[in-house]
Amino acid sequence: MDKPQHECGVIGIYAPNEDVARMAFFGLYALQHRGQEAAGIAVADGQTIRLHKDVGMVAQVFTPQNLAPLAGHFAIGHTRYSTTGSSNLRNAQPFLIETLHGPLALAHNGNLVNTAELRRELLQRGVGLQSSSDSEVMTLMLAGAKGDTWAERLENTMPKWQGAYCLTVLTRDGVYAVRDPWGFHPLSIGQLPSGGHAVASETGALRTLGCVAIREVKPGEIIALSNSALRVRQALPPQPELARCTFEHIYFSRPDSFWDGLSTHQVRVRLGEELAREAPADADVVIPVPDSSTPAAIGYARVSGLPHNDGFIKNRYIGRTFIQPTDSLRKQGVALKFLALEENLRGQRVVMIDDSIVRGNTAGPLVQLLRDAGAREVHLRITCPPIAHPCFMGIDMGTYADLIAHRMTLEEMRDHIKCDSLHFLSLAGMMRALGRTSGYCNACFTGIYPLKVDTAHTKTGFEKAIV
Ligand code: SF4
């Protein structure tokens, strides 16, 4: 599908006398939408760390048999979509290595923008690398860092990492949660009902585990999970201007997740409301592209006074298979994933609400699907501004050349998609929906990056050396 792809979801658990591997499994299950290419869980018992990881979805990777040996009190887990480095087992996480100070495992959500420089430094010191992942670079840097404790080693290494990182780090007797000082992606921590703590990319996963008293890991913090009070260390001051990823609210996060004090579902409703004020349409019905655009369609309908109805039925499982469709099925295109509800569309002038257009290769077929089902007009409304710049902080949107809004004007896009009208929500409208005036990264819309990026960098750039 034509959607930005998130890099990963991470989880960390300290729960004495619990089956932490099984808890991590269900936590990862709740984060499956953040990465569907590989999954892994590492567990420590005070002496050693055991790991199981593989390519595939969480439910494909883990079985009762391979979870059983993962016994201990401390766990971290990772579900992966590849950002730096393509999807293969070598890049699957957590990374686990032996160090002078005992075993160390690391799970990373995000993307560093200075990986090339950090890799070169490691290679010059004779440190071998097995994968093309920036997360392996981070693991090896930590292993060689100065400091008497892991918290000190983390604190001494963090200034060298430029970019987006939410980490869960496992040692033989501890779990740490770490967040970059820009605060690009969410990481929250909660208290488990049975004692101990859990940390996860989204509050939805923490609630799945029954957590209460949930709070964010603040930008620049290192938190050691424990049975009672959390041990919190402000390792780096938060950047004066935070750079939360707006796309977490627009598309990535589960609608039941909270971030920056905002409910994702409520933000999406307000995005639809703003869109209806900015770009009304002479139409009969508002139809969302499910699932992430459904709250926005509710908001658009509320403000416009138009009825809201289902127009697409989504096969929620089609994206979750590694079996490639046959050529004749592939020609069906979006019909493998969506079918149109003719009875709701026949003779109707439709407002179709979607959350983003990246490459622009599915909006056209979706519009056609509505027309084939009898829609008289299709007016496309998008709940964010045009994406004209790539992301270097962990969201895969492709390169400049891939982005339709970089190549085409609004009118050219409308022609390409073949809709009757096309409007994107303005930057100001989007921020109004968030109720924020600053503290967010909007670089994919504006081209103004919160830190220095190498615009020539591509996702598989390091794989020429590692094949
Ligand atoms: S560039 Fe866009 S997708 Fe990337 S972190 Fe910033 S807001 Fe998020």
Overview of the molecule:
With 467 residues, the protein is α+β, with helices and mostly antiparallel strands. It folds into two domains: 5-243, Glutamine Phosphoribosylpyrophosphate, subunit 1, domain 1 (4-Layer Sandwich); 268-316 and 328-436, 3-Layer(aba) Sandwich (Rossmann fold), CATH 3.40.50.2020. The model is unreliable at 459-467 (pLDDT under 50). Residues 184, 245-247, 391, 393, 395, 441-444 line the site of iron/sulfur cluster (SF4).
Q: If classified by CATH, what would the architecture of the largest domain be? A: 4-Layer Sandwich
Question: What is the terminal separation in angstroms?
Answer: 27 Å
The bound ligands are: iron/sulfur cluster
CATH level 1 class label of the largest domain: Alpha Beta
Overall form: globular
**Pairing-aware structural class of the strands and helices?**
alpha+beta
- The quaternary state of the protein chains shown equals single chain
CATH homolog superfamily of the largest domain: Aminohydrolase, N-terminal nucleophile (Ntn) domain
Mean pLDDT: 91
The largest beta-sheet arranges its strands as: 4-3-5-2-11-10-12
Fill in the CATH topology of the largest domain: Glutamine Phosphoribosylpyrophosphate, subunit 1, domain 1
Query: For the CA atoms, what is the radius of gyration?
Result: 22 Å
